[in-house]
Amino acid sequence: MANYGHSFGNTSAGPVEVERVVLWLDVYERYPSGAVLKKSDSYPEGKVIPAGTPISVSKPGGEATLNGSAPIGLTLDDVTMGADFCTLTIVTRGRILEDRYSGTAYTTAQKTALKGAITFIKES
Predict the structure, then answer these.
(1) Among 1, 30, 50, 73, which is 20 to 30 Å from 116 by CA?
(2) For the chain, where are the alpha helices, taking DSSP H only?
């Protein structure tokens, strides 16, 4: 089932598929109203933004920037790009199992920006 976010613009079609991999051990705080990511060449319709992706936004509900060097948090769960956009929930305080993140490995700059807010736990 496609998950276009949690606020609006959410539609689904076809069979429901369920898979559960625990990524977040604890979520203590979320950014108010999350963020919006518009469809683009980098994020076409159907592309999955994995849970744990570094994210920046300038205001609640604002336009998201992903994978920058100074994120304000990490995405809560996997979200699939919709026809025009998707909405993202942002974790600003929590504990994450770093080895289970399916995106590009976190950089030192990203971890430094999130120090004291996100605890990265390595399993290996």
Answers:
(1) 50
(2) 108-113
